Amino acid sequence: MIKKGLSRLGTFFLYLLSLLPFWFLYIIADIVFVILYYITGYRRRVVQENLRNSFPEKSAQERASIEKKYFKYMADLMMETIKSVSMSRRSVEKRMVCTNPEMVQHYFSQGKSILAAAGHYCNWEMACLSFGFLTNEKRMIVYKPQSNEIFTDFFNRTRARFGATMISMKQTLRKMIEFKNVLTFTVLASDQTPTAHEAQYFTTFLNQPTAVFLGIEKLTKVVNSVVIFYRIDLVKRGYYTYTFVPLAEEPEKTQPYEITEMHVKYLEGLIREKPEYWLWSHRRWKVKPPEGMKVH
Questions:
Q1: pTM for this predicted structure
Q2: CA end-to-end span of the chain
Q3: In-domain check, residue 174
Q4: I need a surface site. Which of 78, 85, 190, 220 has the fewest CB within 10 A?
């Protein structure tokens, strides 16, 4: 009971904080960066290990530079995520701009639903808001429930403010089948980490054997939707563009695991371009392949 009360108090505080202007939140972000990077060293060992294993070809100095840039951006992302709680549609449209919205109508005009793979790269939370008013057709965002139900519900209500429907990972297949006969646009994170018992497929991602969910590939073959990548790019502090990149327009003609490899490799290429914008403090490689399992 006490825990729930504190959680509700925390969400109320986040809402009040979100009312502050961007310029003030970025002052806070600069302070948060100093605290995380220099004072507490928040997850720096995790970030350093992930960078070292992902980029063995880079020098220690190069990896240190990426690490520092990452923490600087993470502090900004924290404040931008809080700001998203109360951002207006006008503000979102100004700060998260789609470069090729016509692609959505192109596929819908052909009677094809869309399944978009995304990564925890750049500001995916603000992208969720923008996604909400991208089209009038059914929009669904798949999420992985967190341990704190109150915070999960709070951020899901934030993400759904402009019309998107939030769907738990375990309900995705049922919902996709339910809406099979209507046009839908569904977004899934392609870099979520499966639990050990869920890990059925391992691929080489950033030089390491990596467990990958097969959900995107399985879902698209059930409902025969086109597969695209939801690419987000930082333009300048607080301003982004996102672009839809076609991956598989005829999923029924692909080979087993081909779609999975497509979205994993695209994300890897994006990370290699500008690695500081990916979620390096996440323990992405805690699940290891069992002895004898093939790594693709």
A1: 0.93
A2: 47
A3: yes
A4: 78
